[in-house]
Design a protein that fits this description.
With 208 residues, this protein is α/β, with parallel strands linked by helices. The protein has a single domain, classed as Metal-dependent hydrolases (TIM Barrel), CATH 3.20.20.140. It contains 9 helices and 8 strands. Strand 5, helix 4 and strand 6 form a beta-alpha-beta unit. Helix 7 packs across helix 8. The longest helix is centred in the middle third of the chain and has 17 residues. The two termini are 13 Å apart.
Length: 208
């Protein structure tokens, strides 16, 4: 099932737009699906400690990417290229490298990419370059990928068909692009079965 991940700030409006787009959406509600934004290693450790959701997403930064990818409670490292001020003299700094990708693969943590970040970036060209590099690294080291809107603004949503096309523009193959829009649902289902067989299925809002 192809799904988009969004924030429930304008829940009814999002559902209305999702219906028009013929989209199925998963709400990041910090209960069933948690997004952690951490400013430091200690901040991340404090927040991850009590997480019991079926999908745990951590927004990346150069300060915490490694410690996040070492933690098996994490399902998705989102925007690893975020909060990187400058590239090194010899190469583009994208927030990932060989060591981090091997950690992600070992601990079965997907790398997430946000259309909302691209849409609202102050330097879209640089950001897209970093994302393209991270997609290449993810493919090379067999790291799973997730792509979604990750927006709270209904008008920043795109149809899953458009998201697939955008993911392909960023460098994913057609197969990778489709997988990137189904993986979140697969992780949720797997974690539900693993953590709580009696979990109430209210984290996924399917628009028929």
């Amino acid at each position: 099932m192809l799904v988009d991940l969004v924030f429930p700030v304008n829940k009814q409006e999002i559902l209305k737009i999702a219906e028009k787009l013929d989209n199925k959406v998963i709400f990041i509600d910090n209960q069933n699906v948690t997004l952690i934004r951490a400013n430091s290693e200690n901040d991340f450790k404090r927040q991850i400690k009590n997480v019991r959701s079926n999908l745990t997403i951590v927004e990346g930064s150069q300060k915490i990417n490694r410690i996040v990818l070492e933690n098996r409670k994490v399902d998705i490292l989102l925007n690893p290229e975020k909060n990187i001020l400058k590239d090194s003299l010899s190469h583009r700094n994208s927030g990932l490298n060989q060591v981090l990708c091997k950690l992600a693969s070992k601990n079965d943590i997907a790398i997430g990419f946000s259309f909302n970040e691209i849409l609202n970036s102050e330097d879209t060209v640089k950001l897209i370059g970093r994302i393209k590099q991270n997609i290449k690294l993810s493919r090379k080291y067999n790291v799973k990928m997730v792509f979604a809107s990750f927006t709270e603004d209904p008008f920043d949503m795109r149809s899953v068909k458009d998201l697939i096309n955008i993911a392909m523009f960023l460098g994913m193959t057609p197969e990778e692009a489709k997988k990137s829009l189904s993986l979140a649902k697969e992780i949720i289902d797997k974690n539900k079965e693993k953590r709580d067989k009696d979990w109430i299925r209210d984290d996924i809002k399917v628009v028929d």
